[in-house]
Amino acid sequence: VLDAVITDVNKLGLFAQCGPLKVFVSRASLPPSFVYQDDSAVGCMTDGEVELRVDSDIRLRLLGVRYDSMNLFAIATINESYLGPIHHSNLGGQGNAALFGSLGSSDFAASQSSPLQSPHSPTL
After folding, report:
1. Is NAD among the key words of this record (predicted)?
2. What does each C-alpha distance from 110 to 23, 97, 104, 113, 116 come to in angstroms?
3. Per residue of the chain (124 residues), what is the pLDDT tens digit?
4. What does pTM read for this prediction?
5. Among the CATH numbers 3.40.1180.10, 3.40.1190.20, 2.40.40.10, 2.40.50.140, which is that of 2-85?
6. What is the C-alpha to C-alpha distance for residues 90 and 4, in angstroms, rounded to an integer?
7. Residues 83, 105: Cα–Cα separation, whole Å
8. CA 40-43-49 angle, 5° bins
9. DSSP 89
10. 56: CB partners within 8 A, 6+ apart
């Protein structure tokens, strides 16, 4: 599962970029509710509520990867739970604590300064 940025949308699907990896998501790998809208200057896919357009962030799952000496290319899907457009919300200055609403504030603070944490453990 990767996060990528949409670079092109057409009636066959969409293209996205994740670092050097170019990814294609075909119409068959999009949720069936998404339809192509070409009435704007830049095409987009929409389901009436959400739009997939150029420069939108998207979460996708790779289905296959191909590479040669100069390029990396993959096909992917967004037709599964937790995949699709990424909505960035304003955290209102709450920082990482807002991302972990299920933790109490004291639990979050304790998790940030745990003496049992390995120096190689990822930090939040």
Report:
1. no
2. 40, 12, 10, 5, 11
3. 999 999 999 999 999 999 999 999 999 999 999 999 887 677 888 888 888 999 999 999 999 999 999 999 999 999 999 999 998 765 554 444 433 344 344 444 444 444 444 445 455 4
4. 0.68
5. 2.40.50.140
6. 20
7. 29
8. 85
9. -
10. 5, 6, 85, 86
Count of Cβ atoms closer than 10 Å to residue 120 Cβ:
5
**Integer angstrom CA distances of residue 4 from 14, 18, 85, 110:** 11, 5, 10, 33
Distance from CA of residue 5 to its chain's centroid? 8
Listed by start position, the domains of the chain span: 2-85, 89-116
pLDDT attached to residue 40: 66
CA angle 83, 86, 87 (to 5 degrees): 135
